[in-house]
Amino acid sequence: MRDDEHDEDAGEAEITADTEATVRCPYCSEEVEITLDPDSGEAQEYVEDCAVCCQPWQVTVHYDLEGRAEVTATALDG
Ligand SMILES: [Zn+2]
Question: What is the residue extent of each domain of the chain?
Fold first, then answer.
């Protein structure tokens, strides 16, 4: 009898996804730290207000395979 069961432990290394990112506000040009939610998926898009000038950003978050978040904030125009 053969035991074809594979040990798949390799590749399950735990990655730590970024939970914070710094973006530059498109309105006031301040660098603002924002909190991310890795559980919401590897690609996210939402609206968040600038903590400095209160203008709304369109925030785009993209996680890569290593859990690094690429975050952009752009002006939310009409
Ligand atoms: Zn701002």
Answer: 20-75
Query: CA nearest 19: which of 1, 40, 47, 45?
Result: 40
d(CA 22, CA 45): 16
pLDDT in tens, 1-38: 666 665 555 556 678 999 999 999 999 999 999 999 99
**β-bridge partners, 68:** none
Residue 73's closest CA among 43, 37, 29?
29
Q: Residues within 5 Å of ion ligand 1 by Cβ?
A: 25, 27-28, 50, 52-53
pTM of the model: 0.78
Ligand 1 centroid to residue 50 C-alpha, Å = 5
d(CA 2, CA 5): 9
